[in-house]
Amino acid sequence: MKHQRGVALITVLMVFFFASTIAVTMVSRQHLDIRRTANLSDSLQASNNARSVETFVLQLLTQDYRENPEIDHPQEPWAQQQTRFEVENGEVIFTVEDLNRRFNLNNLSDDPDQIHLERLRLLMTRLELNPELADAIRDWVDTDEQQSGYAGAEDNEYLLLDPPYRAANAAIRDISELLLVRGVDDPTYQRLRPFVTALPAGATLNVNSAAPFVLQSLAQELGAVEADQIVQTRQLTPFAGVDQDFVSQQFVPASVNTSGLTVTSNYFQVRIESYFGGRRAVLESTVKRDPDGRCQVLSRNFSRLEPSEAAQEGERS
Length: 317
Prior knowledge:
Layout: H1 2-67, E1 83-87, E2 90-98, E3 103-104, H2 115-126, H3 133-141, H4 155-158, H5 186-192, E4 196-197, E5 205-206, H6 212-216, H7 224-236, H8 242-246, E6 261-262, E7 267-276, E8 279-289, E9 295-302, E10 306-307, H9 309-316
Parallel strand pairs: 3-4, 5-6
Antiparallel strand pairs: 1-2, 2-7, 7-8, 8-9, 8-10
């Protein structure tokens, strides 16, 4: 009888142990499911807030055109360094960059007078990079199979690589393609990246917003001192035109070719960081503003939704 009572007690204890384990597991899983659902809801709300701000930025750019279609410059409301919105249980931060302030790599595809090629060579010289790489970049975007200069590269060069591939011979869609161009390593790419863009061929360069190094690519005689004078002048009074105003400045060399230069912008990069309930969403959009002022999104990229640092700390604990 004592033996039977001992077995019964052990059995009861085992049943209680397994029942407790199952109950704890169910509660833990339920807690995890609730947290996952909350995180998903917060992520979706962060994304929705980012899209709402994108719509606001498009309206801001359209309004800017209606109020002043003649010129664009960094002192306008849309061009502020950073704008922050406080929202319930979160915030949204956005910046708008004028892409017409950069050198457009796709202009190399239709460049019979080699104006853009010479500008890229000079830009790379100013950045202390090998200017001969400009020939390889031109071969990457042009449509022919003829090698440009000594440093140019077409299929016959790329097919010898391991693994082999062909030259694009087409417009660059993203400037990261530069890493595929022969001779462009990561340090070169990182140095060049802030000053170039990949817009449709024919996109102009806005002298009211062009970066100082890009301004220096307009002529050999236009150095750092002259570029600094241009920046200081346009901060006080933006240039009203290229031929009538910009080139008439005494610090702008007469050798500057005005082809492809303008005082307006119609391509913009919008970056939005949205935080909600410990979740984060990043939206990057490339926007084109049409001649009538209407804006359209050419490309839109949502980065991987990830927890903020606060949420990560909470999950670790």
